[in-house]
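Researcher: First entry.
Model:
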Amino acid sequence: MAIEPTEELFDLLNRGVARELQVAVQYMLQHFKMEKILRRVKLENIILDKTTYDAIGELLRKIAIEEMKHAAHIMERIYYLNGEATTKSAKPMIGETMKDFMANGLHAEEEALDLYRKTLQLTESMGDYTTNELFRDIYEDEEKHYFAFQEHLNIDDAEPEGPPHEETENPKIFTPEYFELLNKAVAAEISAIVQYTNQHEKAAKIALREMVVPLETIKDKTKAGEVSEILKKIFMQEMNHLEKIGERIYKVKGECVYNPDPLPEVGDNADDFLRLDHKAEDYAIVLYRQIIAEAITRGDTKTRKIFEDIVVEEEEHYWTFDDFF
């Protein structure tokens, strides 16, 4: 028979989910923030096509994606064990410089390694070899992340010599009220990413895997499984939206929020997923049209174009979910 999960196991697994969501957002926002600290200067070496800032930004983006995959894998295991995965993240620590990013990353990875050693010890003692193997793989990744941050901990992030950065944006456009409105979009995208990831993995829950009608057996897929596949594609687009919005905010010298708003709602079954996701897309479309109108009023053509492109995809998501009703 399969193992009998305990509250202690679910607690450790959900602490892992919260930590992975934390660092995925943390590293992604740091990657976006490179647009704020990036200096428009000559390259460190004429034969190179990028600067230190570009290289560190790529590293952070790569690790952020790996951490999001960890969160998804842990959620899936929780649902296989008939538990409920959290949608709450631990608090990200962003920082202001590349050295801050590396120090905060090193601290986060130290916490992860400590937590996952406890998880490995418990799952081994329980004979839960599947979860143990999963966390062995995750532990190996986290150790690589730890050493990557350690290697860059003392990086020289002083601005290299070169021409001064030319200001191309009118700073009067970007008021605190405008940044607050733009950050509502950041919060909405983070909410959607967490919600859709959780729902995608919840399709692994045994109650949602049970095949009842012949068609489900023939297709080897339930309604929840079909919705899960749709969410996987939409999730990737939402990640792309977050990147565009976050980079825009940092480029015009703003700061991004990191808390999801509205709070993610998962639901219990495929119909819940569709209803809640339809609601989330409706919220985003209304908000993004408001941002477009405000951008037009302020003469912010770049932000306007970003959100006009995004709202087209959000409307496609909305009608995708609507088709199932």
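Researcher: Second entry.
Model:
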Amino acid sequence: MNNAVKQIYNVLHKTYGKQGWWPIINDKTLLCEYHTGAPKNDAERFEICIGAILAQGTQWHPNVVRAIQQLKLGRELTKNELEVIKKAEMLKAKISEMPRKITKTAMLAQNTSWKNVEKALANLRRAKTLNNKALEKMPAAKLARLIKPAGYYNQKAKKLKEFARFYLALKGKEPKREKLLEVWGVGPETADSILLYAYNKPHFVVDSYTKRILSRLGICKNAEKCSYDELQQLFHKKLLRNAKLFNEFHALLVELGKRSCGKRMDAKSCKGCAIGRFC
């Protein structure tokens, strides 16, 4: 592993800890969960694939999360349900930031409001529409309404239906990268996200965060001019071809991008940047 790249990885890992990607939406609570070891089954694998398509041109949380929640319900969330879920997410985030692992029992004891929130969430029954057969048959207009939070919903609805047909045709087999790229609406970033996170294959994902960070580190002089393949090969050559490592490194770069390395550089963000000394 290249020393400079390894050093950046080590600093990010020490600063942010293990990211636990890819996040899965819990069927019972509809909350986003990390560190689940996903995918554990075909349903989670398909959810990851759908999440990769929905994430195109938007932020994972809360936009994609909202879209997947509504897909699992099979309908749009009401205003009151959204408030319940937002409250639950804030409570869960607050608890997860504590230094020690919090069990469900401890969660209920420390947050008297959580029990009521959990009851309300349990009332949101899943229609089990987040599967390849249901999406393939669902009218595009209805699908578009359900995924509206993720943006570009009409176009993404068509992409999801195309992918659902492709996924059905796989019959449980692992897709090849070149075949994924033949699916309408699936580009290199989406294809590699599917292969890395849904199938545990060592394909480094190059997204907007990665391009921005690499350009500011001087590894890529111009984020807009560096091609996807060029940047991906940089990681493939300098790192061990290991899916677990690629998974964690990409997730850490995303975390850095969300916390510090935004589109605009400012003194406050740069001051708290984990890898500012390399910039």
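Model: Note on the second entry: The longest helix spans residues 79-96.
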